[in-house]
Amino acid sequence: METLTVNIFGTEYKIKTDKEGEYLLKIAKRVDEKMQEIYRLYPHPSTTKIAVLACLNFVDEFLQKERWVKEKLELLSKKMDAAL
Question: Using an 8 Å Cβ cutoff, are 37 and 51 in contact?
Fold first, then answer.
């Protein structure tokens, strides 16, 4: 396990991880970028509100990708059934 220091939206966080360090740094960078993006659009909310909006954005992106994968798997399954 290693401890890495990352900077997200101007605050440093020490994070212990058993994952590859570069992976954690990539995640932290993406979170920081999303929070900066939201701040540029809505510069007056608190850091907490910006963090919540960033989380909502990430979950929305995840669910959209999850739905897309499910649709593709269902389509593939139907094609395989039709071929048999």
Answer: no
pTM of the model: 0.77
| Residues, the chain | 84
For the chain, the first-to-last Cα distance in angstroms comes to: 49
The two tokens of residue 28 are 């932290």
Tens of pLDDT, residue by residue over 21-59, are 899 999 999 999 999 999 999 888 899 999 999 999 999
| Annotated domain spans of the chain | 2-83
C-alpha torsion 21→25→70→51, nearest 10: 140
